[in-house]
Amino acid sequence: MTYIEILEKARKNMSNLCRSCPVCDGKACRNTVPGPGAKGSGTVAIRNYEAWKQIHLVLDTISENKPVETKTTLFGKEFRLPVFAGPVGAVDMHYGDAYVDLTYNEILVKACKEAGILAFTGDGMNPEIMKVATQNIKANEGIGIPTIKPWTQETVMEKLALAQESKALAVAMDIDAAGLPFLKGFVPPAGRKSISELKEIAQACGVPFILKGILSVKGALKAKEAGASAIVVSNHGGRVLDDTPTTAEVLEEIVQAVGEDLTILVDGGIRTGQDVFKALALGADGVLIARPFVNMIYGAEAEGVNTLVQKIQDELIDTMEMCGAATIDEITRDMIH
């Protein structure tokens, strides 16, 4: 099936909160939470998408006509391209009851590995979500990254033990999830974490620790101090705080501050191979894409995942060819305007 055909099929499996739009730009779902939209006015998700469109590509075809290679490495593992599936939680509430987190993650982890990338898995109130997600990662040779929410230290350590058992490539925490209502109401209190608390988690990981939800140089420096190996520049898709900057706006200054010390990933409105190219030109080491993978699974499961990965790779190759980059490392700042 084509990408559009899969979207059409997904639409039939979705609740009316997600329209499986041809362009996932946050407009149709706007402030639908529950649903895939953004918090408050709903404009952050829209601006995330639009900010990448304000960055333009520099056409340059005066270069050696040789094959383009999109391979990249993350923590010593080689992947098909620097694009990874972002963590998604409560899929039945936000998208439709055709899947729940357990079945969604089972499909996602395996399908991403088969497509040559990896998936970040989500977390939730049900302990089985992390248990099953890490079992799936283990069954797929550790090719996956479990994402733990900022629960109490005791709960984090319990979930971290499951992550370690899975032999996962790395462990992530979406620290910005502190803004989610169910975390705010969690007893004992969960949410924001101090540098010392994060340092304790990082030291206990045994694998690279990724902090997702960094949106400033200040935050990036704190993540570095806490012992993170990587960060994800992210505003949680606009779902935890209205009126934040877009990720495209803050990425470059964060790269300039900590890019020599940390692996830097970015998400938020990235939808095409052209967007991926722009993020790499601004200094990111890779990108996360979340909502479109949900639609692909709801439409065609593993086939949908592979179709999306192929689509993005084809677009990235075309952009690299037309901008003069033969490898990911050859993508530079002067190739965007």
TrEMBL record:
Keyword Flavoprotein assigned: yes
Cofactor entry: FMN
Keyword Flavoprotein set for record: yes
Domain FMN hydroxy acid dehydrogenase: 37-337
Domain of life the protein comes from: Bacteria
InterPro entries on file: Aldolase_TIM, Alpha-hydoxy_acid_DH_FMN, FMN-dep_DH, FMN_HAD
Short name of one Pfam family: FMN_dh
Keywords (A to Z) from UniProt: Flavoprotein, FMN, Oxidoreductase
PROSITE patterns in alphabetical order: FMN_HYDROXY_ACID_DH_2 (PS51349)
Catalytic activity: (S)-lactate + O2 = pyruvate + H2O2
CDD domains: alpha_hydroxyacid_oxid_FMN
Family stated for the protein in its record: Belongs to the FMN-dependent alpha-hydroxy acid dehydrogenase family.
Protein name: L-lactate oxidase
Lineage: Bacteria, Bacillati, Bacillota, Erysipelotrichia, Erysipelotrichales
